[in-house]
Amino acid sequence: MNWSPFQRAVLAFVVVVCVVSIAVAAWGVAKWGFSRAGADVPDRGITVNDSAEVRAKPDVAYVTLGVVTKARDAGSAAKANASKTDAVIAAIVKLGIPKSGVKTVDYSLDPEMDYDKDPSPIVGYTATNSISVKLTELDRIGTLVDTAVAAGANTVRSVSFDVQDKRKLREEALAEAVKKAESKARAIAGALGVRLGSAVSASEDVSFYGSAGMNYAPLYRARHVVASVAKTPLEPGLTKVSAQVEVVYAVR
User: Fold this and answer.
1) Taking a C-beta distance cutoff of 8 angstroms, is the pair 171, 209 a contact?
2) What span, in angstroms and rounded, lies between the C-alpha atoms of 153 and 145?
3) How far from chain centre, in Å, is Cα 32?
4) Are the C-beta atoms of residues 60 and 136 closer than 8 Å to each other?
């Protein structure tokens, strides 16, 4: 296409206008971005870190019980285990514990080997079903174990304690940590001869530490298990929540 001198001049003018418009728009966006960043980050500030710990008495226990059965063949071991486990769960529910609070946490079916012979033959099978029971009445742990063992449970794996509503503890720990951080920032500002402004940013980290529970080795003689639990004092201890915060304050 052949362009006349007038057409070339018009085209050049349009190109120049477009380039200038794009440059102006880019400068405006950059200026807005820098002004926003400057509004969020103070020219001068004080950064402080602090922590707080909140403790609470546990209000729930988790008791892990087990049913172990042995038989010459796998099918018999599994069938006997299922029957005894159903009986244990039924007995637990009769205590008034919701069935929703009873769940299987581990199941295994393993061969028994005679390692004195080579090759080692399979001489039987062991089926193990471990169930966890949630109990909110901590003074009934002994009754729970006694009832479960009488119904067919023959191992007590562990007893652990916890707090159900951790959100409240988390909020309390964070509030205390922030309060301590602000006090520290005011002390620093006073020493520097400046006025403490508002907090402009903050970050947090929260950790939960459940109270230690009791662990029991698998004991296959049920009466000995009950005696062990009955003689062992079960002290729930305290559940701990630790919060760490980092806060940046503006200064004036």
Assistant:
1) no
2) 9
3) 41
4) yes
* 129 in Cβ contact with 109 (< 8 Å): no
What tens digit of pLDDT does each residue of 32-88 get? 444 444 445 456 799 999 999 999 999 999 999 999 999 999 999 999 999 999 999
Q: How far apart are CA 45 and CA 97, in angstroms?
A: 56
For 27, the token pair is 């400068």
Per residue in 169-202, pLDDT (tens digit) is 999 999 999 999 999 999 999 999 999 999 999 9
Question: Domain spanning 60-162: which superfamily?
Answer: Protein of unknown function (DUF541), domain 2 (3.30.70.2970)
Contact 138, 239 (CB under 8 A): no
Count Cα atoms within 13 angstroms, Cβ side, for 49. 3
Q: Are 249 and 48 in contact (CB under 8 A)?
A: yes
- The sheet with strand 45-56 has its strands ordered as 45-56, 239-251, 196-209
